[in-house]
Structures are given as structure tokens and as C-alpha cells.
Amino acid sequence: MTTTQPGLLTGPAPALTAAGRAANRSRRRRRLSRVGVALAGALLVLLALVAIAPGLFTGRAPNETDLAQTMASPSGAHWFGTDQLGRDVFARVLHGARTSLLVGVGSTAFALLGGTVLGLAAALSGRVGDQVLMRFADVLLSLPSLLLALLAVTVLGTGTVNVMLAVAIAFVPGYARIVRAEALVVRRSGYVEAAVGLGLPRPVLVARHVLPNALGPLLVLGAVGFGTSVIYASGLSFLGLGAGPPSPEWGAMLSEGRSFLATAWWIGVFPGLAITVTVVAVNIVGRFAQRRFAGRTS
Amino acid sequence: MTDAGPVGTLPASAGPAGGDPAGQALAGRRLARGRLVRGRLVKGSLVRGIAVRLAAALAVLFGAATLAFAALQLVPGDPVTVLLGPSTTASAEVRAQIREDFGFDRPVVVQYASYLGHLLRGDLGESYQLQRPVAELIDSQLWPTVQLALAAAVLAVVVAVLSAVTTAGRPLPRALASAWELLAVSTPSYWLGIVLLTFFSFRLTIFPVAGAEGFASLVLPAITLALPVAGVLAQVLREGLETALAQPFVVTARARGLTRTAVRFRHALRHAAVSLVTLTGWLTGTLLGGAVLVEVVFARPGIGTLTLQAVSNKDMPVVIGVVLISASVFVLISTVVDLAYLAIDPRLRKG
């Protein structure tokens, strides 16, 4: 990039030249972005802790009603205010983290699994099998993913687990396509040809060589896709198809809060803020992983 | 360029869901290169290319119809019970009558054939709950959704072009723009809608709270639907712009005395727009799907509201009708875009 070699020089700073200034600037930016990634990572760890043990962060129960304190605005006693039944919104948001994040993790995992199986099958099953599976993926990709999820919910029925499966189904075709492309590249690579030449049995070849090498990009995709899963799953709950009303799930809380916007904005705004903050953090970390990975392979 | 977020680093909400837009942009370019080669080999490649595209489009539509039929068959339980809903007191005779009327007693293959036959004649069947033809229901709800999707598409493209053209290759504005784009792609539209409603409809009472009458009721829903999309488009566009601005023709244009702004808008933007065009399919799907959520937030009539109602009631014919219509729209738009490619960019036709 530049002719100066910062880090190797101990003498006067090379920042006097234009190129050196540019290098410095880009280094500063990179350092700044590292700080951002570290903060986002710390936030995700904190969120995971909240999901595992919400009791550590709030003494209140999510469904504890207090009819003397309904729709109280945010204050020292109730950071996020209270809802129409006097439940503490802060406690509900914290307790909702578990359901919302679990559904996101679950649907991403299922989607990756389904995508890997289909993608590998397409890449390794010869021309006809590949054509059949990929044209099937084309058909699924011709539907907006939210509609595909809605179609799946209609068939499976409503509820948290079904929403998780529906979101997974919506994402499978996209993942399958990427895994297939990745597996095709790996399959044509020298080391796989060498392994074939050595007479390795096919299952061993797939398990030991193709899968591990196609897996890296997949995990990075999963990290980036996790944010979308959370948005979709909470969206389906918002539409009233996921977790039922009393349970503190972010999308369901948003939907409840929708009815009280005129008088108590905090009921709907804070659960949504929780989703947004989570997804921003996931995206920052996911993109960092993607960048690192892209740097390694290219 | 290392931390410039190359095309591969696309936002989550673009994710692999509606097709990974970055992946599609790349695939589009790869596809174009493939055609380039074919174009050189095959005489009359344009006609052949059109024929192949149309056949593929029809195949996808047929697949979507089959998928929808399979979904209908997969709904657990007796279809008559599903049709009648949970609180029914229908007698055995009535049930038998319904079974015969809808043809549930016939073999699956016969049902499938008759379903395809009806589709070919443009008959999408009749709603279980609303006792009206599905085509008529969709037709009556189509306009508000089309209005919303078009408004959002225009807004998203305008915002994305401004955000990308004014910041490409300029460190500080670029960082700021990247920040808002990250925020835009990470914000769920249904929450954005609620925040906008709180401020502009309930606090400031500038815009109506619900409904679809007049221009004022379109503003907030269109912004809500457009912003996350604009974030994705802006990122892809800036990537394309920065690549284009590094090309020799930029220096030539500057040497001819064009201003920086003119170079950006008149030369670089055209090249960058190609990657944007490959995202059209993703854009269509996202706007159609996103409309469901936005319509619910703003209590707007439209296809989304109709779909949600049908999903909650297990009104399969309506769900299938909506699925088939959106698949058709998607296929139609991507086919047109694909063909337009051949027309716009002569490099794809001949080597």
C-alpha cells in the first residue's frame, strides 16, 4: 500500500509524507474499529449472561403485576417504566432475552444444518442431483423469505418452536446455495484430488476434507445471519404467531406496546431497542469475522 | 481498502434470507461473464438467451405452484376441520358435503391436476373463511401494497445514491455514512415504524396514525420500509463506486475538465449501478415481505394484512394465492432485469 514500513521504523515518524499520513490515518481507523468490535463483543457476552441468568441483573419478576403503578413513565424505580398491568418493562426486557436469543440461535443452527446437508448433497451427487436440488432452491428463493416463513407457520402452526423452524426454513435455500458453491471450489482443489488419488473412501473424503474446508465461510455467514434470524423471529412474534402474550418475548412485547403508543411509548420502544442493540452488536462482530476471514483466504 | 468492507461484508438483514444480496451481485457478475463466453460461441445468442430465460422462469413458477400444493397437503389434520375452524357445530352431512364440494375425497394426484388446471385458467380457488374468490380478494387489496412498495423502492434508491455518491472515497463522511447504514440494516422495520409513529403521529400529530388515505398516510410507512433497504443498497453502491473511481477513465474524464461531482454522477455511478441492478430480485422480495410487517404496524389495508389474517386462520387458499402472486412478481421482475442486461450492456452479448 505505502512505501513506508511503520512498526519497523524507530526513528522520526514517517507521517511527514502524504503516504505516511494516509497510513497513519488508516491505522487509526483500524484501531478505532477494533475498539468498536471489542465493545460489541463485550455487549454480546453481557447479553448472553442476561439470557442465562436474568435474575442477576434485576430483582423483579417479569410477570409481577402492580396495579397501583400501571403505565408509570421511566424513573429511578422503574428504569424502562411499567406497562398496562404495572409490570416492570426493564425486568421483562431482561427476561425476554432468553427466548428471543434462543430462537435466533436455534433457527440459525437449524438453517446452517439444513443448508449444509442440501448444499453438500447438491455438490457431491452428480449433475442430475445437483440440478434437481438447485432448481428446488431457486423455487424457494423466488419467494420473499418472510412469506416463506409465514407459509411454514401456516403449515406447522404457531408457537415459539414453530417460529424457530419457520425462520430456519426461510434461510435454508440461501445457505444451501452458498455451501454448494463453497464445496464445489473445495472439491476441485488440489488436496482433494490428491486424496482421491490416494484412494480415500468417499465418506471419509467428505468428512475429513470437503466439510472442514467449506465450514469456515459457513460459520462466518451464520454469525452475520444470526442478526437477521433474531429480527425475523421477533417479527413473527410481533405478528402474533410466536410466543403468547404473557411471556416476555421482545417481539410480543412490541406488539403489546403498539396499542399504548399514544399514552406510554416506553412499553413498545424499549423491547425494540433491545432487538436493535443486539443486532447492531452481532453485525459488528459478524462483519469483523467476515473481514478477517476474507483476508485469510484471498 | 482492507477495512473498506468489500462486497462480501454485507449486513445481516440482507443475509442469506432473501438471497444474500452481495452473493447475488457477485453471482450476477459471474453469470454475465459466463454469457460473454457463450455469446461468442453461439450465433443468435440473444434469441437463445431470451428463450432460456423464459423457460427457466416458467419452470420456477411451476415449482412454486407445486410447492404451494405440497404445503397444502402438509397441513396436519382433516382439511374439512381446518376449513370450518375451531368452533364449529357442523353435522356429519355438512362435512361430507364440503368434502365433496372441495374435492378433498379425491386422490391427491387428481386434486393436484385439477389445481394446476384451475391455476392455468387464472383461478386461485376460494377463501375458506371469507367465502370469496382468492383472486378477487388479492385484487381488492393489491393497490395500497403496490403504492407502498413503489414509494419505498424510489425512496430507498434515492437515499442510497445520495449516501453513496457523496461519501465514496472520502474518509470522514464515509465513516459517518457507514455508521448510519449499519444502524439502518440492523433496525427491525416494525420497531422503526413504532418509533416514527410515536414521534410524528402521537407527539407531533403531523401524520395520521393508521389507514391508507392520501399522501400523508403513505409517508411514514414508506420511510419505514425504505430505510433498511437503503442501508443495503448504499453499501453495495459505494463499493461499486469506489471500484469505478479507481479506473483510468476517471482520470481521463477529469483531464477533460469535468468536475469531481460530474465524474461521480455521470461516469462512476453508471458503472456502480450494475451491481445495484443485480440486487433487484432481492429488493423485490424484501419489499414484498417487509410490507407485511409495515402494514401491520401502521394498520394499513393491503396484501400484508390479508396474508396475516389468512395465516392466523389457516386459510390456506389465500396464503397460497399470495405466495404464487409474489413468486410471479419476483420471476417477472428478475426475468425483465436479466433481459434488460442483454439490452443495456453490449459486452454481455458479444465478446
Q: Report low-confidence residues of chain A grouped into runs of 5 or more.
A: 1-15
Helix/strand structural class of chain A:
mainly alpha
Greatest interface: A-B, 70 and 69 residues
How many beta-strand segments of chain B?
0
According to CATH, the fold-level topology of chain A is MetI-like fold
Q: Catalogue the unreliable spans of chain B.
A: 1-43
Order of helices and strands of chain B: HHHHHHHHHHHHHH
* Radius of gyration of chain A using CA atoms only: 24 Å
CATH C-level label of chain A? Mainly Alpha
Major sheet of chain B = none
Structural class of chain B: mainly alpha
**Mind describing the biggest β-sheet of chain A?**
none
Per DSSP, the total helix count of chain B is 14
Q: Estimate the mean pLDDT confidence of chain A.
A: 83
Oligomer: heterodimer
Secondary-structure element string of chain A: HHHHHHHHH
N- to C-terminal distance of chain B: 30 Å
Count structural domains of chain A: 1
Q: Which word captures the global form of chain B?
A: flat
Plain-language structure description:
The complex is a heterodimer of chains A (298) and B (351). With 298 residues, chain A is mainly alpha-helical. Chain A has a single domain (50-68, 79-297), classed as MetI-like (MetI-like fold, Orthogonal Bundle), CATH 1.10.3720. Chain A is 71% helix and 0% strand. The longest helix of chain A has 37 residues, at 202-238. Chain A is globular. The two termini of chain A are 16 Å apart. Chain B has 351 residues and is mainly α. Helices cover 73% and strands 0% of the residues of chain B. In chain B, helix 6 (134-165) packs across helix 14 and helix 9 crosses helix 11 (260-277). Chain B is flat. Chain B starts with 20 loop residues before the first helix and ends in a 7-residue tail after the last helix. The relative contact order of chain B is 0.15. The interface between A and B is large, with 70 and 69 residues.
